Each structure stands twice: as structure tokens, then as C-alpha cells.
Amino acid sequence: MEQRIDRAAWRRDAHDRLFARLDVPFYSLTFRLDVTDVYAFSKRAGVSFYAAMIWVTMRAVNAVEAFRYELRGEDVYLLDHRNPSYTYSWDDELFGICGVEWIDGEPPEAFAARCKEAEANNPSPIPTAEADEAGHDVYLSSLPWLDYGHVTQEFPLDRCDSTPRIMWGRFTEDEQGRKTLSYTVQVNHRLIDGIHLKRLNEALNGAIKALEAY
Fold first, then answer.
1. Residue 101: CB partners within 8 Å, gap ≥ 6?
2. Which pTM value belongs to this model?
């Protein structure tokens, strides 16, 4: 389901139109995220750390309304939810792209199992243009080999591009055993401000805390 926004009543309309004047209204932010409990859950549940991170990320993204806005020409829609479209290892050299439906309330173990099945049945590493444009996605990726400082991602020069792009790196461990990693969020400023990134960070920590129940 989705809801068409009434621009006349939308508090963000002026901000949207301000950033719509720019050729590149996109920006990104990298922060450190404590994933100690994500790693502990992945070991306890026998699922991949990557799948657990995708579950945490999607739960957080869908909890923040601003991340569910989508621009379509002059129209703005509020999506019921976004789905993950993520990269994974296709072979030793190439990556694949896989998408699954996000189901609110689904346990992380079940979500990880669906991801594993979707990857096993993925007919091609790269989706067709039609398939790539069919869903209301969040683009997710990982650099598990590097603990980076910052990264930017590719994007079309389309002021209406509303797809959040999220990436994280290899985690490091401190003397107390806490594991942290670089977590990068790239968004369209027409829809998402710094306050919304703060809320995403809070939602991420809430989703990580929720893993204790599984």
C-alpha cells in the first residue's frame, strides 16, 4: 500500500522544492555502529552476520517515515514499506544482486532463510532494468574486507531518485570485545535531513536490542 501526499498540507514541501533546484541534491554520512550484539546473535542463531545486518537495517529504515517517501515527478508518495535489494558474493570475483520482500514482524532467522533461498535461486547476478525498477527498494552493500573511513556510492543524476543507499564495512574489535563498523547512509536531501539520520541511528540501535528476543 502507499499514500499520495497532499503537497499543500505537506510541511516539507518548501524544503523539497529548495533542494530540487540542485543538480545533485544527494549527500551521505558515515558513523560508527556498535554491532557486538548483531555478531553474538548471528553466532547464537547460526545465521550469517550479513543477513542479520540486513534485517537490522530494514527494520530501522522502515521505522523512520522519511525513509519511506518516494518522489515520482511532481508527486510524493509515502510507502507502506521498503524492500532490501542487496549485493552478495556471486563467485570469487563478481557480486550478485538479490531482492526479497520485507515482511514486518518476521523473525530474523526466517528472514535470513528466505535470503539464502533467494540467492540460491537467483538466475543472474545482475537483474534486468525492468526488475531493478520494479520495487521500492533500499540498496544495501558491504565491504567486508575493509574498515573504511568514508565511501560514496553510484547514483543516477535524477533529482527524483529516492532510493536510500546503505553500506557498511568490516568490523573492528576493541580491548573490551566491542565490535564496531563504519556505516554509511546516502540519501536525497529533498526527503531526508540530519534529524532523520539521527532517528535512523536510534532505530538501528533499537533493532539491535530487539535481537535479544530471538
1. 83
2. 0.95
∠ CA 213-108-29, rounded to 5°? 100
SS3 189: coil
| Closest listed residue to residue 67, CA positions, set 171, 8, 75, 58 | 58
> Which alpha helices (H) appear in 64-193, and where do they start and end?
108-120, 129-132
Q: At residue 178, what is the residue type?
A: R
What's the chain's average pLDDT? 94
- Among residues 141, 198, 187, which one has the least CA distance to residue 163? 187
Which residue do the cell numbers 540498496 mark? 139
Task: Identify any residues that bridge with 69 across adjacent strands, giving them in sequence order.
Answer: 78
Domains of the chain and any CATH numbers: 2-213 (3.30.559.10)
The pLDDT of 134-159, averaged and rounded, is 89
Sign of the four-CA dihedral 54, 58, 64, 70? positive
**Which of these, 183, 184, 132, lies nearest to 161 by C-alpha position?**
132
